[in-house]
User: Which sequence fits this backbone?
């Protein structure tokens, strides 16, 4: 279904896009970041927090490392400030890129099992589907953030994968 190279490209894309968001949100007032803008998680900061929380949860499932101990309901308050968000986001993006760099094709087959707090049950899914979901989830919520930033008067950078700069 997917390859290690796909994962490496998407890990780079994730970090590129998060860096572009940071360049905008670091200059915004906390009240603007926390304003309910009608998105699923409400505000820009809440959506960014949820996405960081979910990325940490999924990468923990993939690499066996640390994951958040909080629930999805608490994900919107995962970090207290946008500066705290960026510090954690930067470290998490590095972790994701490191995981992707070390992947082999064999790592992307088989089944992943975990207890889902959202579903309150054990879940078993193909690893490839889970990894695809991981990257799709990032893009989905960053799209929401992009729309909220645009509505707030910001001018986010290009999000087209084909225009991602080479390393």
Assistant:
């Amino acid at each position: 279904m997917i390859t290690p190279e796909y994962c490496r490209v998407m890990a780079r894309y994730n970090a590129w896009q998060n860096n572009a968001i940071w360049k905008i949100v670091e200059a915004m007032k906390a009240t603007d970041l926390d304003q309910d803008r009608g998105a699923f998680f409400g505000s820009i900061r809440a959506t960014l927090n949820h996405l960081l929380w979910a990325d940490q949860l999924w990468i923990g499932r993939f690499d066996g490392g640390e994951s958040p101990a909080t629930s999805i309901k608490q994900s919107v308050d995962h970090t207290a400030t946008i500066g705290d968000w960026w510090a954690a986001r930067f470290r998490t993006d590095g972790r994701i890129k490191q995981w992707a760099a070390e992947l082999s094709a064999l790592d992307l087959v088989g089944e992943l099992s975990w207890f889902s707090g959202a579903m309150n049950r054990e879940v078993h899914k193909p690893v490839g589907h889970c990894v695809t979901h991981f990257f799709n989830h990032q893009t989905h919520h960053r799209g929401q953030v992009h729309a909220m930033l645009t509505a707030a008067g910001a001018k986010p950078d290009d999000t087209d994968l084909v225009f991602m700069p080479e390393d």
Observations:
- The chain is about 55% helix and 5% strand.
- Strands lie at 111-116, 121-126.
